[in-house]
Structures are given as structure tokens and as C-alpha cells.
Amino acid sequence: MTHGDDRELVVLTQELLEGNIDRRVFLQRLLALGVSTSAAAGLLESLTWSDALAAPTEAPKRGGTLRIAYTDEIPALDPHKSPSESSIRFFFLIHATLLKLDTHLKPVGDLAKSFKVSNGGLKYTFALRPNLKFSNGWALTSADVKATFERILDPKTVAIASSFFANIKAIHTPNAHTVVFDLSAPNAALSAYLTSMNSAILPARLITTGADLSKINNAIGAGPFKVTQWVPDSFMNLSRNTHFHEAGKPYVDHVKVTIQPNSSSLLASMRQHSTDFTYSLDAIVGKEAAAAHSLKVLRVPDLSYYLLFLQTARDPFIKQATRQAVSYAIDRHAIIAAANLGEGVPVGPVSAGLSRYAYPTSKLPGYKRDVKKAKQLLAKAGQTQGFKFTLLTQKTDPDNAPAIAQVVQSQLGDVGISADVQLMEFSAWVQDWLKADYQMMPGNNGGGPDPDYYLYRYFYSGGNLNFVTGHWKSAQLDTLLLKARSSSKFSVRKSSYDKAQKILVDASPFIWLYSGFLYSIMQTRVQGFVPRANHSLVGLRDVWLS
Asked: Is 501 helix (H, G, I), strand (E, B) or coil?
């Protein structure tokens, strides 16, 4: 089985939500994949309490203002440097990429009308669409694509996605509409990575002149909208990009993004019909919105996961036994129940949403709470009396981070570990994360349609985010990750990733918690939006207002 065949669960979910298959076919195909009857029935229930995406009964209409609201501000404007989901949501509005994900999470053309892979996976050739322009009217050519990826690969940029493209050894532009990537080794995940907003195509003239891309006046992209006004921590106004390459899109003329102080005020604005669209990973928000009945709520299994970031290079988590003790001390099911109304499943290094690659947590050590075992491991680490540490916790993004921290604090207390929970504004939390200035942090890691997305940049010794772990590394893991990345054979990749996940859970550089659901919440007048399990908002370019 090839990389393109490993998305069955995601594809089935999207087909059900889009109304392309019915409940019986959905169940039959799940059972054919080897999913148990009870698990298949549970998944069906979890999806169909939401509104299915019925086929539109009328043609899309042009015009109007789409009002979007979130609880967290945009902390950074540079698409190549920001890891935060709140920033990435913004990037989907104003930027475009070479490829995009369709509703089945398959990479298809965006700025590139087509691409081909040759020379045994060592050459990628992209044909750009004709007459591409940025939102300010500048022509977009192969020179902009080359400048973009050279910037991402430049160590001085400190780009979030540099590890995604580490195999690119040369970029050629034989003409204004053709870009060729020569790779040093095959990368089975490359096409998926080219859909990432952290690889948004930027104007070469901004890059080469050293323009400050953290400034709003330099937020120039080739996406569906352009920024017209921004009041930080309050609102942002955008208008239709008349140069957008998808004919007739976007359908709405304007977008207004407002920042709500908390989820309660966000839900209130939805109920009062002053907000049209939002999404959340918080089950409380999703269920309360569904209870309003006047709102559409679409729920899909989430490819991201919740975890505890650990700093393995500093006390008290330098010793492997200490990190293992934390894993045994916590009860993931209790965390899911308390922080997310029971909506979710325990998760390992690869999200449960990638069912073909996710190693069963029932077969991994430390996933069944064992207080006695945790205390034995602390004794092995020379911490018989336990220890104290600081748990830096963001107030939002995700909204339930404080609840996760409180449950973890209580559970660790049972084995003598004292966690001092310190609440932080999200923007400050991001800065500490980028500096690796913490002992432990709860967080939500975004997911993608390939396991390399979860593993390579954090845990490969040369990964650009390896610093987040405290530069934890394993030679055996490096070999496995390189082998999986360079092969297109499912059997080879599956075997390598199975072994990699067992190594990681044993070493515990992170403590993986659970994966839940993505709740897209909208007014009934919002038409045409199809949620993607990786949180992609590329579908906003298809939205129209009835």
C-alpha cells in the first residue's frame, strides 16, 4: 500500500459528512478495514450527532461579510516562523501554497496547476498556474517560489517547517512558470508538506530586501483575502482578493475576525447571531453550540493531539525514569473525562486519526495508571521524596489547557510530585515554547496526513524543532525515521514507525495524552464549508452566505 492509500478512516469520515455515502455503507467499509463492530458503531455515533454536509440545493452566491471569532489573538504574522494555530488560521485567509489538501486530505494543486515526481522520487517539477498575482497586484512567478523555499531552508530564518524540506538540495526555475526541486533523498511526505501554511509563498522582493514580515503592511499573500484593517487584540478586517487565482472565489466580499475574551462570550456571540463561524477543539464548546439547535456543528476526528511538553535537558526531567514515572502517574481517561467531557482517546506519538500508522496505546507501556510503578521509577531516579516543578499553562489555544493542567497536578500529587501551575497569556506561552524555557507545558500539537509530520522535526536529531525536547535524540530512531521518510512502501513505513513509536514512548521526551475532535460551528446561513481533520481552513475560500 502506498502513501496515497493510507487515509481510509479520514476519507470515510469526510464522505459521510459530505453525504456521499450513507450510514450503512460507512459501517460496512469500517468493518472491512478491520474496525470492531462496537468501535465502528461508536465512531458513527460520534460523527452523526452533528449535521451532515448535505449537497447544496442552490448555486453559491456572491457578496456579504463572513464574521469569524476566536478566543486567542494572532501572535505572529510571518508564516514561516509562527507555530501557533491562531496565526495559521490567519495565514489561510491571506496566503496560498504550491499544493493544498482536498476534503480527503489528498494533496492537489493550488498555485501549482500540476506536479510530477521523477528520477525515483528525487525530482519534483511544478507547473504554476498562468497569470498568478499577489493581493497587491505583483506578479507571482517561479522566482517567488524559489525565494520562499530558500528562505525556509536558510538556518538564519529559523523557519518552523525547515525540517519538512531538508531533503531539497537545489531549486531550479527554467522559466517563470516552472519550478524544479532536486532532492538529496526521497521524501514520501513532501507533497503533504507543500500544503502547509508554514510554506506559504511570499513575494521575492520582500524577502530579498529584508522587509520585516512581522509588520501588517508586509502581510502580502496570494490567498483569497487581503488585510484592510487590524486592531491587535480586538479585530481584523479583510476584503476579497480580486487577483485570487480560483475563478469566482472567494464568494464573500469581506471577512471580519474578532477576538473574544473567552469561550463563553464566543458562544454568546454565536447564539446572538453576531458571529458566523468559529471552530474549537473543546468538547464543552462543541456540545454547548450543538445544544443551541439554531447553529450547525460539524464534528470530525482530530489529527492533532494533546500532550505534555517536557524539557529533557534540565531538572527534574533529565532522567528517563523520571519521565516514565510521570507517564505511569497520570490517568489519561480521567484527563479526557475531566478536561474534554470524555470526548477523545489516549494517543501515542502518532495521532489516532492516522489509524494505519498509530500504534495501539493498549500495547504501549505507561498507558495504564500505576501509582506503585510510578513511585518505583522515581526511586530509581533517586527522587524517592518526589520533587517540585513549574507547569507553565496557557489560558487559551487550547481553551482546556488549564483544566488539563489541574488534573495532571492532582494526579502527580498522588506520587509525591508537586506541580506549580502558572497561567500565562498565550502569546507569552508561545515565546517560552520557542525559547524552550520551561520544565513542562500542556499543549496541542497540530497533525497532518503523514506520520513524518509528527515525528521528524521533533525527534530526529537534526530536526528543526528538536530543541523543544531539550535536544533529546536516539541513533536508532534517526535510522528508522530516515528509512520511513525515504520509502513509498506502506509495509516499510509501517514497520519503521511502529518501532519508532515504541522507542519514543519508552524514552518519554514528551508525555502524549489524547486526541479528540474538531468542532466547526457556524450559522445556518454559512454554506459550502467542509472541515478538514488537520484544522485546515482552506475551505473558507468556498464559503458563501445564503
From this structure: helix
Report the residue count for the chain. Answer: 546
Measured distance CA(437)–CA(182) in Å, rounded: 37
Burial environment of residue 385 by CB neighbours within 10 A (0 to 12, 13 to 18, 19 or more): exposed
* Whole-number Å distance between alpha carbons of 260 and 235: 9
Selection from 43, 7, 15 nearest residue 27 by Cα: 43
Tell me: the pLDDT tens digits for 128-140? 999 999 999 999 9
Cell of residue 504, nine digits: 519514543
Q: Are 443 and 430 in contact (CB under 8 A)?
A: no
| pLDDT exceeds cutoff 80 at 173 | yes
How far apart (Å, rounded) are the C-alpha atoms in residues 162 and 153?
5
**Residues 472, 191, 431, CA angle at the centre, nearest 5°?**
40
**pLDDT confidence of residue 476:** 98
Cα 247 from chain centre: 28
Are 530 and 17 within 8 A, CB to CB?
A: yes
Closest CA to 263 of 148, 379, 447, 402: 402
- Do residues 463 and 453 lie in contact, with contact meaning Cβ atoms separated by under 8 Å? no
The percentage of residues in the chain with a pLDDT greater than 70, rounded to a whole number, is 90
CB atoms within 10 A of CB 57: 7
Residues linked to residue 513 through DSSP beta bridges, in sequence order: none
Nearest to 344 by CA among 361, 328, 327, 356: 361
Side-chain half-sphere exposure of 411, counting CA atoms within 13 A: 22
Predicted confidence (pLDDT) at residue 14 exceeds the cutoff of 90: no
> CA torsion sign, 326 to 328 to 333 to 338?
negative
